[in-house]
Amino acid sequence: MMTVGVCGPVDLKLLHWDIPKNSLPLTNTFPLTSYFVNALLKRGHEVIVYTNSPDITEPQVLKSGKLTVCVSREKKQPGRRFFNFEVEDLKRMIKAHPAEVISAFWTYEYALAALGSGIPTIVNIHDVALKILLKQFDPFRLVRWMMNYRVIRKSDVLVANSDYTYKQLSAATRAKTIVIPNFYPDELETIKAPGGTKGNYIVASSNGFTKRKNIHLALEAFQKARKKFPDVALHLVGVDMQKDGPANQYALSKGLANGVRFVGPLPNLKVLEEVAGAKVLVCPSMEESFGMALLEAMVVGTAVIGGEKSGFVPTLLDNGKAGILCDIYSPDSMADAITKLLGDEELRLNMEQTAQQFVRNNFSEEIVLRQHLALMYKLLSKTEPTPEKELIKPELESKKIEIY
What are the residue boundaries of the Glycosyl transferase family domain, all occurrences included (predicted)? Predict the structure, then answer.
C-alpha cells in the first residue's frame, strides 16, 4: 500500500470520513477529486489531501482514520498575483505532511505546488488552457495559460483525461502523457429519481453562463421544443443559473424564460437527483475535455444530448449509440433532438440502458482506478499488489453518498 497525496480542488463534504460536515471550511470543489480520494481509501491506501480555502486565516489539518486533509489559505483575487501566495502556502503544507507520491488535479496552482515540493508528482490535465484562452480571451485566462505552460514544462508524468485532450497537446507534451479517463464512483449507480418516477422536465447543468457553455442557445432550443411539448419544463442547474442570476436575466431580456425553472447551484447529491428525475439532460457546451455532467447523467439513467463536435462528447456518447448527438450551434438541431427523445419513450428507455452499460464497461471506478494505481506504482518503482490483495473495506464499499 502507498501513502498517496491528492492536491487539487476537493469537496470535503463528499469525503468518506467522520468529520462533521458543518465544521468543514469552504473549499474550491470538484467532485471527481473527492471520488478519487474515496476510491483510494476504499482500497486501503493512506491518503493526504492538499487543498485550500478562502474561508480560513490559518492553515488547518484535519484527520480521520487513514485520511489527512491539509487546508491552505486562499486570498482574494489570486489571478492578479499569479496565485503565488496560494502556491507557496500549499507547498508548505505538502512539505510538512509529505506523501510518497502526489496526484495533482489540473495544470494550475495545485500542480505548481506539488511539483515544487520535490515529491514525485503526476499531473492530471482536465482542460486545454490554450483552447480556453482563445475561446474566452481575458486577463484571468491569460494568467491560467501562463501557469499551465509552467506546469507542463516542469512535469515528467502527465495524465490526460481523454483522447480528445491528449490530441490537443504538443508532440513534446504527448511524449510524457498517458490517457486515463475520468470515472464515476460505484455509489452513483444507487441514485434514482425522487419517488422513483421521472418528472416532466429536461435539465441542463452548467457552471457558468458563458459563451463556451452555450446555455443561451439551449434556451432558444427549449422554446422551439415547447411548441410540440408545451407542458415540459427546463430546469437550469449550476453557477449563474439561479433565479435573478445571469441566465435568468438573459432569458427575460430575450423572451426565453417561459417554462424555465432557474434552480442555480445545488449540493452534489441534489444535482444528481435533479438529473436522475429528468427525462433528458441537454449539454450544449461548445467543448468538453471529458464531460462529467454527461457521464453522471448516463450513470443515473437519464438520456443525454450533446454536441457532435464538442470535444470528447461524441466518444463519451459512443458516437451516438449512448446518446443523441446534434449541432449545438443550431437551436433547431438541439430542439429536434429534444423532441425526438420526448416523443419516443421506447427510444429514450433504450438509450438510457445502452448508456448505462457503456459507461459501466468503460468508465467505472474499478477499471479507471487500477490504471491510476499502476502508474503510481511504476513511478515509485514499487511492486503493485495483485487484485486479490487490494483491500476493499466493506463499510466503505457499501457507503452511499450522503445529503448535506
Answer: 197-357
The answer to whether residues 369 and 312 belong to one domain is: no
Structural domain includes residue 207: yes
What nine digits make up the cell of 208? Answer: 457558468
Residue 150 domain-assigned (yes or no): yes
Q: Where are the beta strands (DSSP E) in 74-133?
A: 101-105, 121-125
Q: Which pLDDT tens digit goes with each residue over 64-118? A: 999 999 999 999 999 999 999 999 999 999 999 999 999 999 999 999 999 999 9
Same domain, 146 and 37: yes
In-domain check, residue 402: no
For residues 95 and 25, what is the distance between their CA atoms, to the nearest angstrom?
22
228 shares its domain with 313: yes
Query: Hey, which residues does 3 pair with through a beta bridge?
Result: 46
The three-class DSSP label of residue 400 is coil
Q: Quick one: pLDDT at residue 283?
A: 98
CATH assignment at residue 375: 3.40.50.2000
Q: Can you state the percent helix, strand and coil of the chain, rounding each to 5? A: 45, 20, 40
Alpha-carbon span 153 to 160, nearest angstrom: 15
pTM for the full predicted model: 0.91
Q: How far apart are the first and last CA of the chain?
A: 31
275-333 tens-digit pLDDT: 999 999 999 999 999 999 999 999 999 999 999 999 999 999 999 999 999 999 999 99
Q: What's the CA gap between 236 and 172, in Å, rounded?
A: 40
The domain total for the chain is 2
Name the DSSP letter for residue 403.
P
Task: Find, among 275, 245, 270, the residue nearest to 355 by Cα.
Answer: 275
